[in-house]
Amino acid sequence: MKALRVAFFASIVGSFVAFAAALSCASSPDENRLTQAIVPDYDTYVATVDTYLTRRCGSLDCHGQAGRAYRIYSREGFRLYTIQDGALVSGQQPTAPEEQRANFQALVALEPEEMTRLMARQGENPNLLLFLRKSLKLERHKGGPAMAEDDPGYRCVVAWLSIPVVKGDGTPIPPKDRAKLSASAQRNCTEAASFP
Amino acid sequence: MQKRSSTAGAPLSKARALSLPGARRLCAVLCGLPFLATLAVSCSLDPVHRAGVKNLGTEQSNLYPPESEYHRPGEPCALCHSAAGPANSDYVLAGTVFWGPDKYERRVDQAYVRIVGPEKTKKCFVTNCNGNFYVTSEEYKNIKFPLLVSVERVNKPGGKGADDEKSIKVRRMSSHIGRDASCATCHILGLRDFGSPGQIRMFDTEGEVDAAKVPLASSCPNDLPRETLCPEDRL
């Protein structure tokens, strides 16, 4: 009986050791491996979407924080301290182009593979993006629902994501040849940018 | 020996099952769980929260009456005044209003702090003589974020004169409050940098404060008559 018990405990301890060993033996990341992502139209993002997202999501107590995967820089919130010798102060200078670029990169890099798939199907079914699932609170979001499917902000973002950046055969469409936002989408973006 | 042998066989195994370490362990676990639950509720097991509270340091009794409504101006109130404790009361919103960006001792007594919620709910609160205001969950039921905030200080709050309720200064927050109950989480005392716009202030420079000849409380707490309701809440 005692031998059986010893064997039982030994097997449990053995499994933990084997599990820990398996974790520690994982291969190191390959620094040369790149994931090429197809990203939405940058010019439209800068012209119409960034203002809304920075105002809606970028306050210092939400995504205007260094620790966030979706990290937002803006005049009203967190500032990019690696530019202008760290002189940008929250609430003072206008949002810098480098900050808008960083915001775009943070957004598209949240799920590069999912974003690529979304762009490849030309924006169809955008709610598969974690970024929108969280905003709509289809998935847990600490800040609660930040968008609704019938509000102008959501419609603005979806219209932006629907701009084709690749053709059906996967050929990239140059930025100058890409479609522009429709008049109603523009109106939604303008209204959304006045948030709150 | 005789007694032990008399309980041999099947009845003995049942008796053993209940009396031996297995049953004791079960009992210990059942007794221990409520104890651990009580421990978890009574003190914060979150190391980040614990470190945040510890970093506030001790109370400065030379600057304010400790553990009172006047204490720790400019510090993140809801860090302690939350479900995680250690304070007994929970605040859904709290902060301190200063006259300028730098001087700790120049705080705004009887400022009207107006809050607008997403469903157009409006509330107004008045700061005490140390510039502190706080909102409990009873005072603002079902609070929802984001919130818009403005702060106003009038010449003589509650006065009956023609110019008494005339504004000295109104300040509106350019963004909104996303979800944090403590103003000082973002509005860090005396700091303006890439991650903080600085303490909540009526004027952007101390020179403007001097020029405006603002009323400053000579001592706090004091027995002077004071207004505790915003104009829209007075009967």
Describe the structure.
The complex is a heterodimer of chains A (about 200) and B (about 240). Chain A contains seven helices and no strands. Chain A is elongated. Chain A has helices at about 1-25, 40-55, 95-110, 110-120, 130-135, 150-160, 185-195. Chain A is an all-alpha fold and about 200 residues long. Chain B is about 25% helix and about 15% strand. Chain B has helices at about 1-5, 10-20, 20-40, 45-55, 75-80, 205-210, and strands at about 90-95, 110-115, 120-125, 130-135, 150-155, 165-170. In chain B, a hairpin with a 5-residue loop joins strand 2 (about 110-115) and strand 3 (about 120-125). The longest helix of chain B is centred in the first third of the chain and has 22 residues, at about 20-40. Chain B starts with a helix and ends in a 23-residue tail after the last helix. The relative contact order of chain B is 0.14. Residues about 1-15 of chain B have low confidence and may be disordered. Chains A and B meet through loops of A and loops of B.
Shape of chain A: elongated
Strand percentage of chain B: 5-15%
Form type of chain B? elongated
Please describe the biggest sheet of chain A, giving its number of strands, its sense, and whether it closes into a barrel: none
Order of helices and strands of chain A: HHHHHHH
**Spatial order of the strands in the main sheet of chain B?**
3-2-5-6
Radius of gyration of chain A from the CA trace?
Answer: 22 Å
Mean pLDDT of chain B: 84
Based on CA atoms alone, the radius of gyration of chain B comes out at 27 Å
What's the end-to-end separation of chain B, in Å? Answer: 89 Å
Mean pLDDT of chain A: 90
The arrangement of helices and strands of chain B along the chain is HHHHHEEEEEEH
Number of helix segments of chain B?
Answer: 6
Helix content of chain A: 40-55%
Biggest chain-to-chain interface with counts: A-B, 25 and 21 residues
